[in-house]
Amino acid sequence: MLFLGSLEFDILLGDVHSLKEKRSVVRPVIAELQRFGVCAVEAGEMDRHRRAMVGVAAASSAVGHLHEVLDKCERHVAARPELQLLGVRRRIFGPED
Q1: How far apart (Å, rounded) are the C-alpha atoms in residues 91 and 58?
Q2: How does pLDDT run across 1-39, given as a tens digit for each residue?
Q3: For 65, phi and psi rounded to 5 degrees?
Q4: What is the spatial distance between Cα 83 and Cα 24, in angstroms, rounded to a whole number?
């Protein structure tokens, strides 16, 4: 069995005044998320310098393990002092989907 999970983070960035500054905040967050064994990308709000949408995707043969990994990712983003997590959307897809 294979389970797929995703997270979509809606993020408000702190003291950011340009798209260049935005990239300097978002890129390290994405790189750190990838250390959890997930795929992470900036997926939206590309033209707004104080907002970011970051997507995370992961696959596992055990749904419990998948939830653990996604929980770690969510806690990691929420703990970042330079950003405010406005919302998180989580989806899990199983063999019957």
Answers
A1: 11
A2: 899 999 999 999 988 899 999 999 999 999 999 999 999
A3: -65, -40
A4: 12
DSSP states along the chain: --EEEEEEEEEEESS--SHHHHHHHHHHHHHHHHTTT-EEEEEE-TT-TTEEEEEEEEEES-HHHHHHHHHHHHHHHHT-TTEEEEEEEEEEE-TT-
CB 57 within 8 A of CB 5: yes
**Superfamily holding 3-91:** TT1725-like (3.30.70.1120)
Taking phi over 0 as left and psi of -120 to 50 as alpha, with beta for the rest, 29 belongs to: alpha
Tell me which residue of 81, 16, 67 sits closest to 45, measured CA to CA.
Answer: 16
pTM of the model: 0.90
Domains of the chain: which residue ranges?
3-91
Nearest to 69 by CA among 86, 44, 92, 87: 92
